[in-house]
Design a protein that fits this description.
By secondary structure, the protein is an all-alpha fold. It has a domain of 34 residues. The protein has 3 helices and no strands. The protein starts with 18 loop residues before the first helix and ends in a 6-residue tail after the last helix.
């Protein structure tokens, strides 16, 4: 007797761990809410914030 399932389950779709991937996985109102609460900033602002915190900027 085997412990393997008779009908294997397909692997779930992987969602990329970035804003575009997450938004693509959401539908309708949930996607709109994600975009409304998503903090955005420029690259220059992100670099300045990391430098101010003493973090590496590589």
């Amino acid at each position: 007797m085997s412990a393997q399932p008779i009908h294997p389950h397909p692997e779930p779709d992987r969602v990329p761990r970035n804003a575009e991937g997450i938004a693509a996985a959401l539908e309708g109102e949930r996607r709109m809410e994600f975009y409304r609460t998503l903090p955005t900033r420029s690259v220059a602002a992100a670099i300045a914030r990391r430098q101010a915190a003493g973090l590496p900027v590589e």
